[in-house]
Structures are given as C-alpha cells and as structure tokens.
Amino acid sequence: MAIIASNFKTNHTRKSTADFINNVNDFLNTNSISEDVYVFPTATSLDTFATVSNLTLGAQNAYATANGSFTGEIGTEQLDEFGIKTILIGHSERRHVLNESQEEIAKKFSFYSELGYKVIYCIGEPLEVKEQGLEQTLEYIYEQFVGIDTNYENLILAYEPVWAIGTGVTATNEDIKSVHSAIKARIAKPLLYGGSVKVANVREICSLDGVDGALIGTASWKVEDFKQIIENTKDL
C-alpha cells in the first residue's frame, strides 16, 4: 500500500493546519481509506489531534536534544507534549539551504532512532551530479548514508532529486526506476519519491517498481489536492 506524506515546509498557520488535519482525517474516516498518510506541519502548528490510526503527524526538524540552550530549535520535550514520534531527517533544504552536514544529520538520526522515532530519511542529488550519470548519482546518494543505520526498523527512505523539488521538473519514470531499484537492492526499506509530485502524476509515479509512495511539498498544501492525491493512490 502506498505511503503518502505532505511536507508543509514554511507554510500554513496553526489554524489552517488544524483545519487541514481535521479535513483529511474526516476524509480518511468517511471513505475507510487505510493507506498510511503523514503530515509534517511547521513547529508552531504542532498540536494534539484526534485522528484515525493511519494519519500521523510528524516534525519537519528537531535538534538532537531533550531540551537545553539551543536558540530557535525544538527538542523532544516540545515534541512529547503533542505525542509526536515521527520526524523528517536529511531533507535537501536542510542540507543545501541550511548547510546541515552529514555529520550533523547522522547525529540527529542516531538520537531520534535510539528513542524509537519513525524516521523519514531524505536523500538526493543536485543537477550537476545527475548530469554526470547514474553511477556518480548513486555514489553521491550512498555518501548520504554515512553514519546512518539503514537496518533501523522504523525507517522510511525518501529519494528527492534536488533538481526536481519545487522546479516543476519531474524526473522521468526511467530516472526514478533506475535510482529506486538500485537503492532498494541495497537497503530493504520503504522508499518514497519526492520531487514535483502532483495530483496528475502521483498515481503513475507510485505505480513504478520500487516506489512505495510519495513525499510531497507544494502540491499537497491545498487540502482538496492532497485528498485527491490520497484518492488517486488508495488502492495501490
């Protein structure tokens, strides 16, 4: 069954997030949809929601700490208040925009995996690497597994080619299949695809060999679109 995840990034407010979650929850409940759905709101919009068991809220980011003197960060003390046990780690924007090193990412992974969190771990390559071919792409991606326990039981992977995120450029089916099959042959974990996934192409992408679902940004921020994405993949 497909796994569908929405990453809000720096979008939505506390109120619009609550409306979104409740709307999606009603949709899953009313239509008896059982596929796993994840929503990653902003830290200021985290809350306790009564949801069906297959709708999970997660944190987009947190520091490797319970609490402490880390200005601008949140830790497990803040996540525990809302029962959050799911986190995105290694997203390309954390790597490329906020300059998180592999060492920092591995430290975060180690901290949250030791606590039993569900981790959606993101990997992907920039355009200049992709243009060098599949071998170099895979070499670049495998470096993003340094310090990561790929046997961790609560791990979901998400392949996001950096050049396809928010650009409107989607990797071809062949691009997706070749990278996904190589990763899946090496690491036996669910593997999501992310990168300009939208209502129109989500079913086709999630039907490809080696694709276990999608991690979606822009196209998931309107609740009607997100519900349509769930509808389009519910039977896969």
TrEMBL record:
Record EC number: 5.3.1.1
Sequence positions that bind substrate: N7, F8, K9, G166, S196
Keywords in alphabetical order: Cytoplasm, Gluconeogenesis, Glycolysis, Isomerase
GO cellular component, as recorded: cytosol
Catalytic residue positions: H91 (electrophile), E160 (proton acceptor)
UniProt xrefs under CDD domains: TIM
Keyword Cytoplasm listed: yes
Annotated GO biological process: gluconeogenesis; glyceraldehyde-3-phosphate biosynthetic process; glycerol catabolic process; glycolytic process
Recorded metabolic or biological pathway in which this protein acts: Carbohydrate degradation; glycolysis; D-glyceraldehyde 3-phosphate from glycerone phosphate: step 1/1; Carbohydrate biosynthesis; gluconeogenesis
A GO MF label: triose-phosphate isomerase activity
Domain of life: Bacteria
Signal peptide: none
Catalysed reaction equations from the record: D-glyceraldehyde 3-phosphate = dihydroxyacetone phosphate
PROSITE patterns xref list: TIM_1, TIM_2
A family per Pfam: TIM
Cellular localization per UniProt: Cytoplasm
Subunit structure: Homodimer.
Entry similarity comment: Belongs to the triosephosphate isomerase family.
HAMAP family the UniProt entry points to: TIM_B
Function field: Involved in the gluconeogenesis. Catalyzes stereospecifically the conversion of dihydroxyacetone phosphate (DHAP) to D-glyceraldehyde-3-phosphate (G3P).
Record protein name field: Triosephosphate isomerase
Organism of derivation: Poseidonibacter parvus
